[in-house]
Amino acid sequence: MKISTLLLSLGLTSVAFAQTPCQSGRYASDVYSNVTLSSNIVYGSNTSFSGATTSLTLDFYEPAADTSVARPLIIWVHGGSFLGGTKTDVDVQELSNRFAKKGYACASINYRTGFFPIDSVNAIKAVIRATQDLKASLRFFYKDRATANAYKIDTNRIFIGGSSAGALTVLHVAYLDQECEINDYVNPTNLAALGGLEGTSGNPGYSTKVAGVINLCGALGRYSWLEAGDVPLVSLHGTNDATVKYNRGVVNPGVALMYLDGSRMLIERSCALNHPHKLYTFLGAPHVPYAGTGATQIAYMDTTVNFVRDFLVQRLGCTDMDLQPANPPAQNANLYAINYCNGNPVDETCLTLALTENSKENELTLYPNPASGQVTINYETEGLKMITVIDISGRTVMTSEMNESIYTLPVRDLKKGTYFVYVSDESLQKSVMKQLIIE
Q1: What is the CATH number of domain 2-356?
Q2: What is the pLDDT averaged over residues 198-215?
Q3: How much is the pTM?
């Protein structure tokens, strides 16, 4: 019965998608006046950081009186530094309502928040829990399509979007796809105890595949996790974001937590790989400038909705004109600038900062990592090299020199947390970096 239902749902999807995708302005403009909201739908359950069983719920937004049998879905993920926030935060509510009026179905999810002690190690675990819950919500809609089909979702057209911490969540769901990629952040034993990358938040056995990602003021652990062939991405980010850096830096919602690559780093990575990615830069804007009800916030929200709308209708195969053209990423004298890439007019060649830096990083290895008593540094160049260890707030906590390619550094006096090991080679006039976890 399940197989026949799945085949039927796939057939309906094919028929619906074979039709003109933007009939009568659907998806490109507000073709519905009213939105129907269904609140507190349970999509899964899991254990919180404190050990309590947590019911996972979502709010479902759909165009009132919609007769479509296979609608694109956007799952929105709220912000809150992984310490708070809810599915009813004003920005995700506004985004859900606006896109539902264009003919999309939208879901705003709650996920497990909170961690203690408030440090980098536990912040990383909080990110993993959030990604596990988002994946459970994806499986929930795939399961529904294959069974009851109550929500009438075209599972070929599911997009995930998030704001701030929610943007971190969607980026890691889309581009962190191998457990070995985060061995420097959490060791395999601890990751397994958390439930692995997929997690156990519900609806096992169903897909978590998405058609695209909406990144609003977010960042990724490493730009190298974004690879050629990955799903398309749209990003909006302010250059004066002090919480989640536009370029690269420490996420700091009041406490220094994680060192991440922001939206400008991701667009350069996409440029180097010819990966489909659109970036809108809010010049001079702070963190989440679209969140709020004032005139300035509403103007930023209008730009956000229009730019994301342009991305989505393109992914759906529509031919509507863009409402909000992309602007050049802001220049950074410490790195270098790019202008337009990936289908936009090219003023400069898309350079390969991400690929170049990644190859340098691979020359430096640290083991064990995570470490406790000591760490071995392997850097295959001859001559004198300077080692500098920096904590997550940017403070230098240790320096040393190494003359050989392999050097053992005692770290037993360092507190638990995330650090960055820089090895400077003056003869080659370069410096390489690797993240180090102390447990």
Answers
A1: 3.40.50.1820
A2: 97
A3: 0.76
